[in-house]
Specification:
Blueprint: E1 13-21, H1 25-32, H2 38-41, E2 48-51, E3 56-59, E4 67-75, E5 80-87, E6 92-103, E7 109-119, H3 124-146, E8 154-155, H4 161-174, E9 178-180, H5 188-198, E10 206-211, H6 218-232, E11 237-242, H7 253-265, E12 269-275, H8 279-289, E13 294-300, H9 308-316, E14 320-324, H10 336-345, H11 349-359, E15 363-364, H12 371-378, H13 387-394
Parallel strand pairs: 8-9, 9-10, 10-11, 11-12, 12-13, 13-14, 14-15
Antiparallel strand pairs: 1-7, 2-3, 3-4, 4-5, 5-6, 6-7
Length: 413
């Protein structure tokens, strides 16, 4: 449906904005979340409310009167909805718009936001410029949201064989949709088998793997990633990381970062990133592929090692941080400060630490073989720590690094 077909107004202006995303149409449509989910991805719409059986949407508008919209068409199968505006502080009337997600291949989609409107007191050019700007900004915000590294997932470090299969199966049954693995973990096949057995659609998952140091050279990286995909029973992963920088620069950073970027261009991975990179190594990676190409730096980060210099450099360059070993192998769970905060909130120590990391904007990937722990960890998303709680945990930093393999670890900051 063309956006202007639903109005009888003779003098209409129209515009359309679009963006291409390296994500399947089904996944994008799912993440958009329906007619009432604009606040989930539009930063300038803090909240919305539905009425009249979900057909009227009232959007909070910090800059003026609320915007009231009516759902005209919702087509889940074809992935679009159309709406009209009943009330808004815009110089237009007879407004009708459509938000649509189109497939552009198995792992790529195009999102279109189109509208038509009759100008009131302004020229066609002015009102087109207004709405095109709104649509373009909105789609950029949507892209940023969709390409974000999810805040909470399940890790599989040190899990082998049946334990890895059972952990992933239990995690998926508990509601996890983000899974982290790596070539060196030796469990990609079990992770893939658990996903296949779960019945959860691939498009609903966010899957990360990591390239081991033996596969960093240009001639090995992509073939090794294809082997990982075969084990994981998928055509692509959502995120591929360089697990560790090449020891002794045996493979030049430029070589493996360019090979990783090529893997993304081939559609083997939607996003790329790094792990265990220092500030200097991050700067080098930025010079090769650009900061915008690096989705995350996955680093050891917990209350006893808060890695502030690396995290701040990443933040300044728009690189997300993923915390591994957030619970410090369980050491922080008996810390008196953590225990006291947990008691105040009637939460578990693990929930407190995970909530602390997520409050700071870090993604977390705790692992567990126990279903009860997996379910409990998910509840960390609901825990709201106070500023005082955060300050107390912040004071626990003592630079205690637990992972620094000899011959593998770089010169830490």
């Amino acid at each position: 449906m063309r956006p202007c077909q639903a109005t009888r107004s003779k003098t209409m202006a129209s515009t359309i904005a679009s963006i291409t995303l390296p994500v399947s149409a089904d996944r994008v449509w799912q993440l958009i979340g329906g007619f009432n989910s604009l606040p989930d991805w539009l930063p300038y719409i803090p909240q919305s409310e539905l009425s009249e059986g979900g057909r009227i949407r009232t959007l909070a508008n910090p800059s003026g009167d609320a915007i009231v919209e009516r759902l005209e068409v919702f087509n889940d199968e074809e992935r679009y909805y159309s709406y009209s505006i009943l009330k808004a502080p815009f110089p237009s009337r007879d407004y009708y718009a459509t938000l649509r997600v189109k497939p552009a291949g198995e792992t790529t989609s195009v999102v279109e936001w189109a509208g038509c409107f009759a100008p009131v007191g302004v020229s066609d050019e002015e009102v087109v410029r207004l709405f095109h700007g709104i649509y373009t900004d909105g789609l950029q915000a949507l892209a940023q949201k969709i390409m974000e590294v999810p805040a909470l997932g399940v890790g599989t470090f040190r899990l082998q064989g049946e334990a890895a299969f059972d952990s992933v199966r239990n995690a998926l049954e508990a509601g996890y949709r983000v899974i982290d693995t790596a070539q060196i973990y030796g469990n990609e096949a079990e992770v893939g088998a658990a996903i296949a057995a779960s019945g959860v659609p691939r498009s609903a998952l966010y899957l990360t793997t990591k390239i081991w140091i033996d596969n960093l050279s240009r001639d090995k990286l992509i073939p090794s990633l294809k082997e990982s995909l075969a084990k994981l029973r998928t055509d692509y992963v959502d995120l591929t990381l360089i697990h560790w920088p090449s020891p002794g620069d045996a493979v030049a950073l430029k070589e493996f970062m360019e090979a990783l970027a090529e893997a993304r261009e081939q559609g083997l991975t939607r996003q790329i990133g790094i792990s265990n990179f220092t500030i200097d190594l991050m700067q080098q990676a930025i010079e090769v592929v650009g900061a915008e190409a690096i989705a995350t730096n996955q680093i050891e980060l917990h209350p006893y090692l808060q890695n502030r210099k690396v995290a701040e450099f990443a933040r300044q360059n728009g690189i997300h941080v993923t915390s591994y070993m957030t619970l410090a192998y369980g050491k922080v769970l008996s810390d008196p400060t953590i225990l006291a905060i947990a008691e105040r909130h009637q939460a578990t120590p693990a929930q407190v630490v995970l909530a602390w990391a997520m409050r700071l904007g870090y993604a977390v990937i705790p692992s567990s073989t126990k279903r009860a722990n997996l379910e409990s960890n998910l509840k960390a998303r609901e825990l709201n720590l106070s500023d005082d709680d955060m300050a107390q945990i912040g004071a626990l930093d003592r630079g205690e690094r637990l992972t620094s393999p000899q011959g593998l670890a770089p010169a830490w900051d």
